[in-house]
Amino acid sequence: MSLTASLLTAATVLVDDIHSGVAARGYTDIRPTHGFVFSRLSEAGATVTEVAEHLGVTRQAASQIVDELVAKGYVERRPHPSDARARLVVLTERGVRCTWAAEDAAVDALESWEDILGEQRLLAMRDELVRLAPNGPLRPAW
Amino acid sequence: MSLTASLLTAATVLVDDIHSGVAARGYTDIRPTHGFVFSRLSEAGATVTEVAEHLGVTRQAASQIVDELVAKGYVERRPHPSDARARLVVLTERGVRCTWAAEDAAVDALESWEDILGEQRLLAMRDELVRLAPNGPLRPAW
DNA sequence: AATATATAGGCAAGAAGCTTGAGCAAGTTA
DNA sequence: TAACTTGCTCAAGCTTCTTGCCTATATATT
Questions:
Q1: Where are the domains of chain B?
Q2: How confident is the model at residue A136 (pLDDT cuts 50, 70, 90)?
Q3: CATH numeric code, B3-132
Q4: How confident is the model at residue B1 (pLDDT cuts 50, 70, 90)?
Q5: Is A78 helix (H, G, I), strand (E, B) or coil?
Q6: Maximum CA extent, chain B
Q7: For strand A75-79 and strand A87-91, is the pairing parallel, antiparallel, or unpaired?
Q8: Is B112 exposed, middle or buried (0-12, 13-18, 19+ CB in 10 A)?
Q9: Cα–Cα distance measured from residue A114 to residue A122, given in angstroms and rounded to the nearest whole number
């Protein structure tokens, strides 16, 4: 099995597991893509353009995704503090609670991995992966 | 950056790079998904159902993808040797040459990664990833 | 052997989620 | 202040998936 295939299957399995865990915690109306958005917003929010770059999609697509998250109560659009053209997308309380649930789900999903490799090597792998692809997008589809 | 995010960005970057390399070698009418199909077929072919499981999509979707690959000359459907219901999907010569091009492109794409981590650790990472998720699907979208 | 059920595959319609194209408002440059 | 750029969004369209249904063959039951 190639590195490419093993990377992809590992990523797919992990994302699917976390997605199931998030759904089991009551958040059944969102997709993994939305989680990628949340992680971009969690620090201090972001503009639609920044979300688009993070996901590797067009600004229009990012805008639609944000629309959906607004409608479902996970995020809201605020005026941008320093640029009246832009709008700052930030997590609502519901959005924050959902990211907590996702972190919980990630811990659960990684438990079986820690049993196999141990926390040490898992962290080492993460560090190596970050060195290999520090700033890439999280494209939701191919 | 989390393990999940680093896994996904690394996989995304690698897939995008290989896809570009394959396109640069003249195969501009296929997507990464098709490459995942090729890798499943390369041994001894596979049924549509097996392709569907490999990709993590419905049988109908897999059938449509195979339709497209047949139309473009990369694969063909043959009667299955031991089950008259099933059909064996196999690579054509064009399909085989395309998988070669993909392997070339993968080597190119991995060069910069070898510069960063070295071949040893890259192979070690692959082994670890295989242990973590041996039989997962390569879902083309979330 | 006859019947019931399961499995492989595919057609058609529809939905999800992206892109392209166009346009407005606000910022930046000359 | 005029020209251009940037941030965003509306609308339309397209790609690619799913759902629902159907046929043919295989397998299990009686």
A1: 3-132
A2: confident
A3: 1.10.10.10
A4: confident
A5: strand
A6: 51
A7: antiparallel
A8: exposed
A9: 7
